[in-house]
Write a sequence for this structure.
């Protein structure tokens, strides 16, 4: 049996791509070395972390905010075992969902580690060591990414005391002191989870800001909010050592600007210093597939330099985001089926699922300044939004950046409750090249948090109504 296309890896890129390929009539198979489909995102990433973020947000709400809403309850008690069971059930239902969709779309699956063994050939080694040869016209590498570790620092991640995001999702108890290395997305999301459950959390970050690359104003305000929630920050601090101690571990860091090193003790250390493309044992070198800066090099159509081998998702250039991988999966399936697949990299939203959430799409102010583009800013705070007041979710604001001459929206940044849902009207607007006036003249239901989006749009060219 020969396939039209085989996806190696069933994360959001591979599984969505495979479904699309099958829907387009291609004979499709997948290769997966994990026991379950769904990759990092569904098994040990996006999905379980959202289960934990939601559960701990509810815990924090019940503990701190119910009284103000007129709900008197005794202090909530943590049942970590049941919280973990909720997380595990969420993962199970999602990975089983993918298995169901594969069956429904008649996609074959090969369990084991795939290695490109020749043109149109993949050798799949199962857990029992048995090798199955799979023949296919096209191969799509969708093997994702793995923990990068700290460059130049030897760190022994045991997933108990020194953990990656995987271990941080399954701690046996709430650590007294959690030290997070890296103030990026994983560090702040997982740091939030354990801080809400009572851990003291210290974030050690190399840059002078958390969430480097994010709109500076948003990052600064957000850091203040996290500090109010109890998180501590050591910025401009380069971690040079992480070592296990008799009890817990120690983290050593030095000021980036120079100065004395400092060592702090932790019960648990989370290493959240980024991820690297995962191409181990794929046979890429032997197949002659070119790499670029540690990632698989592809052209605008996801093709590598070797005919019939494509790559998508974290393993190629671009933001390491599940939805970026999904869209590339759809596009590559369309391209292989002879259609015109395309992803608009200018309108990919990104969300940090903390409390409040941060969501952004398009350019930041810093990027526009660097590119010498004249822009105007419209801002609206949630303190002036009726619905936000009713829900006690007045933290944050909406910020819209539009071209000074054409009024076309170039970027949008939302810090606030439900930001991750609200960002999509801006994403659609940008996809259609819309202006802030288009948005401001669109009726928004009242009372909703989204009215702040409209008010911010109004503010770019005139005045908001409720300010
Ligand atoms: P990241 O790249 O977001 O952040 C890593 C941070 O570690 C950076 O701020 C960097 O300056 C810092 N760092 C590096 N070396 C250091 C050192 N020696 N000492 C101190 N700080 C150091 O990476 P993260 O958070 O690990 O996430 C990995 C990937 O997963 C990212 O690409 C992210 O986009 C993705 N992800 C996305 C999520 C979302 O969209 N909600 C959630 C979780 C992960």
């Amino acid at each position: 049996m020969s396939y039209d296309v085989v996806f190696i890896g069933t994360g959001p890129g591979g599984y969505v791509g495979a479904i699309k390929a099958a829907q387009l009539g291609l004979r499709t198979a997948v290769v997966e070395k994990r026991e379950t489909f769904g990759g990092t995102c569904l098994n040990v990433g996006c999905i379980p972390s959202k289960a934990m973020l939601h559960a701990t947000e509810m815990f924090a709400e019940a503990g701190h905010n119910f009284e103000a809403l007129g709900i008197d309850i005794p202090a909530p008690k943590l049942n970590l075992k049941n919280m973990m069971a909720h997380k595990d059930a969420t993962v199970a239902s999602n990975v089983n969902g993918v298995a169901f969709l594969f069956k429904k779309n008649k996609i074959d699956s090969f369990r084991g580690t795939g290695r490109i063994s020749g043109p149109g050939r993949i050798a799949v080694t199962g857990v029992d060591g048995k090798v199955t040869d799979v023949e296919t016209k096209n191969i799509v590498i969708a093997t994702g990414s793995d923990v990068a570790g700290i460059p130049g620092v030897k760190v022994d991640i045991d997933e108990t005391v020194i953990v990656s995001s995987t271990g941080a999702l399954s701690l046996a108890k709430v650590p007294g002191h959690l030290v997070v290395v890296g103030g990026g997305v994983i560090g702040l999301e997982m740091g939030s989870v354990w801080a809400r459950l009572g851990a003291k959390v210290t974030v050690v970050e190399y840059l002078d800001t958390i969430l480097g690359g994010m709109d500076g104003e948003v990052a600064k305000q957000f850091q203040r909010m996290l500090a109010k929630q109890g998180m501590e920050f050591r910025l401009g601090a380069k971690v040079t050592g992480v070592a296990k101690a008799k009890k817990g571990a120690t983290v050593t860091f030095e000021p980036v600007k120079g100065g004395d090193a400092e060592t702090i003790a932790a019960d648990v250390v989370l290493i959240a210093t980024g991820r690297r493309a995962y191409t181990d044992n794929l046979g890429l070198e032997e197949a002659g597939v070119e790499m670029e800066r540690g990632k698989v090099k592809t052209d605008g159509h996801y093709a590598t330099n070797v005919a019939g081998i494509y790559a998508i998702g974290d393993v190629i250039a671009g933001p390491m985001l599940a939805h970026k991988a999904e869209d590339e999966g759809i596009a590559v399936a369309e391209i292989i089926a002879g259609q015109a697949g395309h992803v608009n990299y200018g309108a990919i939203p990104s969300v940090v699922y903390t409390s409040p959430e941060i969501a952004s799409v398009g350019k930041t102010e810093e990027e526009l300044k660097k590119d010498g583009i004249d822009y105007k800013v419209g801002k609206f705070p949630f303190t002036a939004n009726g619905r936000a007041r009713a829900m006690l979710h007045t933290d944050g604001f909406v910020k819209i950046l539009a071209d000074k001459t054409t009024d076309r929206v170039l970027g949008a940044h939302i810090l606030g409750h439900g930001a991750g849902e609200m960002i999509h009207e801006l994403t659609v607007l940008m996809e259609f090249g819309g202006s802030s006036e288009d948005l401001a003249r669109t009726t928004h239901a009242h009372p909703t948090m989204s009215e702040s989006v409209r008010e911010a749009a109004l503010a770019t060219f005139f005045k908001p109504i409720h300010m």
Q: What stands out?
A: DSSP finds 14 helices and 24 strands in the chain. The chain has a mean pLDDT of 97.
